[in-house]
Amino acid sequence: MSLLSTLARLQAVRSGRAEPLATVRHRHLSERPMVVVPLAAAGEAGAPLAVMLGTDREAPRLHIVPQPLNRDQRFDFLARFGADLLPYLESFADEVEHVEGTERDAGTGERTPVVRELCADAPQLIVPNTGSVQHLALIGRSTRFRRTAEDADPGPYPAPTQVPLLGRWLTHLTDRAQVPGSSLLLPMTALLSRHWATGQSHLEDQHLAALLAWHVPPAGLTGAEAAERAESERDAHGQLVRPSAGPATDPKFDELVLAPAIARHDAALAAARAAAPADAARAELLVKRAAEQLHGVLEQVLLPTWADVWQGLDLLRALPEGGHVAERWEGDRWSFTGHRDRLAAGEPPQPKQDDAVTAARKLAQREREQVRLEVQEALDDPLAMAEHRLAGEAFAGEVVAVVPEYDTSGRSAKPRPLLVVHTADRPHADAGREVHRVGAATPQRGVVAGFDPDGGTVTVRVVSGMGRRKEPEPGSLPEVGERVVFTLFELTPRQSAPLPDPEDTPWTHGGPPGAAPMSASSTEEWE
Amino acid sequence: MTAGMTADQAPGAVADAAVAAILEASVRPAPGAPRGVVVDSPPGAGKSTLVVRAARELVASGERLMIVAQTNSQVDDLVDRLAAKGPDLSIGRLHAGDSRPAPEALRHGNVTASEKVADLLEHDVVVSTAAKWQWVRTEAPWRHAIVDEAYQMRSDALLAVARLFERALFVGDPGQLDPFTVVGTDQWAGLSYDPSSSAVVTLLAHNPAIRPHRLPVSWRLPASAAPLISAAFYPYTPFRSGTGPGERRLAAAVRADGSPVDAAIDEAVESGWALLELPARHTVRTDPQAVAAVAAVVRRLLDRGLTAHSEQGSAPVAPGRIAVGTAHRDQAAAVRQALAALDVPVDPAAGPAVTVDTANRLQGREYDVTVVLHPLSGRPDATAFHLETGRLCVLASRHRHACIVVARAGIAELLDEHPSTEPVQLGVAVKFPDGWEANHAVLAHLAAHRVPLS
């Protein structure tokens, strides 16, 4: 935790309200996000119980699994979830723009121009917390290999057609969510924690209702009091007034409300199966009523979280978007377009596990994006830059002198002017450290020539970004009196080194990956 | 203890036997032998000497050789050593466009530096960092490679360079810092080729026939340090010091002035260890009092004119023979500023200087006396980063004579309040000892050498 965010947390403790950590919004927010609030059943890892989703805050749609252990009901639920979610995802697939690029021919190495499609916009899923992301990833993992009635060999338990497709999309979205700065799938708690500090711990911040309580505490309460109330207040029946945001439900809810409702539904279902033809209609009615009751119970427990997520979106929308957010969103659009194309090309689902090369490639991408994210946030947001300045990794100040000097060691003289910057910051500016100027017309590098902490001046010898002539291009150097910011870190992430193709995996990493069996084992217990 | 390592055998003979076996396996491998040879080396066990010898023997047997090290300073060190020990070798120093090799590496006539590997293909040995090797595209791969500091190398870096060679000798210290990443890698935990794990872990997982060799004698650590470091950080692969008690000695020309700082120096001169303990307090990372204490210790070390007597002869403990180790870069920067304010040379460009750096950058380095700002000093919590076994191991094993630890009181209590809570991942070998245990072992030893600074 940086010094600045520690300070913001201390301030939040004192003020009783969430304190800003950012002056702009650092993540893309779609105009039409899909809010998804999933619930998991206790007892079995990744067993879905219910999901509430929709793009309209006034019209949430709820799907439930009446008996979470029943595989038929589970896949029936997943089919409905897919039928509800997939049209939203696919609605972004058709509107495209054309981007010119080049492609290197694998044989000749020649570059040829190509025009590629890029989806004009991409879907965005908002879930309450990181637990929900993991839950969706588990659903993706358990469904993307399911065989359907359309497969050549459907197996003993073919799933509805949407199910494997849902699994592939969920796998893609949850995998993309691991990339720093990506916005296809965002947990609300992480979004809020990035932009505001509360006076509680990071662990407590994962409770969405408690986190929001710091933003809008009820009159007369401090954030801490409101958060505690949100976490622990129970009604006369022992139920939480602000139910957990999932995916796990409150054990008291499971015990006193959910389990009896499921048992009633199970009993009604069993009675309907055993009923004589004359009683069938009445038995069906009882099943329907039991299902409606279960539906109502889960709706009650999901609606507060549903409202919380939308309230979080309201808070975030009030912040202006950061300057580089659109650039990063373009990366998300490429990611979406790429997955769309893989589906269209009939490629098989994502493998169970990444092979060595894919894992290394993904790690390299995430590290590159992490660097890009940190730099771009610092460039977009003075508060983010302030963290680097406090850490001695950047300094801001006023140019008090520009001394023209030249490097005459080469054939033609090159400009190597000295900038004297007056700053109140305490950078780790040892002589010889490379520094980078923020906001220069072209990337501009310098080398620290001297630092006088007592006088508060840093002398920087500018070595690039001044054109090719003997004299610096007009406007390429700041003038005396101008405010400048220099960073001690590079402003563009380094390119990642090339990796071998998976089929060329070397002996140190076990050689090329074998043809791993793709199908899920069918020996599981079904009902 | 292994069969070949008994107390009555001379350390030199034990070490020579181990080295001979390693050279045999890497230069003249038996038919069908695994393609890799792994050497585990505790701190200062002659790893660099081994690399130089292996390189010379491989070249003598008619091979061209590539050497992969992890940082530019490691490469420069290695080139310097290789060139000095093997004047008959032609050595290529491959470097990136934006980093010039150090002058020590280039002062030899048999060293050629270039940014392009094509300029260096004819040389006996080409040395570069893993990061630079990853970019090398060449049609003529080397048959042999030596990977230095292989435990610091990440699995994904090995994946990118392994295409360049057929056989390799991997040398490294398993007790030092593991490679790391700042992004989440849980999804690959437990995979044999987890890209964020160490190159050696991946190599061994895929080549179970490779049995790691061990270097059994630390030539760097004095008799006062080897037993502690061996027991605390290498409990299952013990090693011993090359010198016996009393063979290394520090002597101060100037008598102590009665201050706690001088008392700590005397304790370290006497016993090889000292703990200069500040009162317990939660502080910011760059704790100004602790930083000032570190700076004062270094200043007095220089003022008191220490002389180091050892098997290599007697020499003054000059600024270049002293290092300060910290956990974080901002701490190192703060110490450097405090030292500069006391007129202690810290800029290597301006002459012999005290090295001030983080544990990561001190790996593989050696000094007469080290001053360590304890990673847990003044902290309210003990995170996985600060508990990492390798961090403390690096900091406590850089010295030939003495190590002075500066810390706030209360670290033992802090450790007891923060048992390690990292999730256990399926398929990941649990590392022993854990940081918690190793920290306690070192603290217990330091308690006997405590000097309070009030």
Description:
The complex is a heterodimer of chains A (527) and B (454). Chain A has 527 residues and is an alpha+beta fold. Chain A has two domains: 3-244 and 306-350, no CATH class; 393-487, Translation factors (Elongation Factor Tu (Ef-tu), domain 3, Beta Barrel), CATH 2.40.30.10. Chain A has twelve helices and 17 strands. In chain A, the strands form five sheets. In chain A, strands 10-13-16-15-14-17 form a six-stranded antiparallel barrel. In chain A, helix 2 (71-90) packs across helix 4 (162-176) and helix 3 crosses helix 4 (162-176). With 454 residues, chain B is α/β, with parallel strands linked by helices. Helix content of chain B is 33%, strand content 19%. Chain B has an eight-stranded parallel sheet with strand order 4-3-5-2-6-7-1-8. A six-stranded parallel sheet of chain B has the order 16-15-17-18-12-19. In chain B, helix 8 runs antiparallel to helix 16 and helix 9 packs across helix 10 (288-303). Chain B is globular, with a radius of gyration of 22 Å. The two termini of chain B are 43 Å apart. The model of chain B is unreliable at 1-6 (pLDDT under 50).
What are the salient characteristics of this protein?
heterodimer; A: 527 residues; alpha+beta; Elongation Factor Tu (Ef-tu), domain 3; six-stranded antiparallel beta barrel; five-stranded mixed β-sheet; 38% helix; globular; B: 454 residues; alpha/beta; eight-stranded parallel β-sheet; six-stranded parallel β-sheet; 16 helices; 19 strands; 33% helix
What percent of residues of chain A adopt helix (DSSP H or I)?
25-40%
Helix and strand element order of chain A: HEEEEHEEEHHEHEHHHHHHHEEEEEEEE
Give a short account of the largest sheet of chain B.
Answer: 8 strands, parallel
Give the beta-strand count of chain A.
Answer: 17
Major sheet: arrangement of strands of chain A = 10-13-16-15-14-17
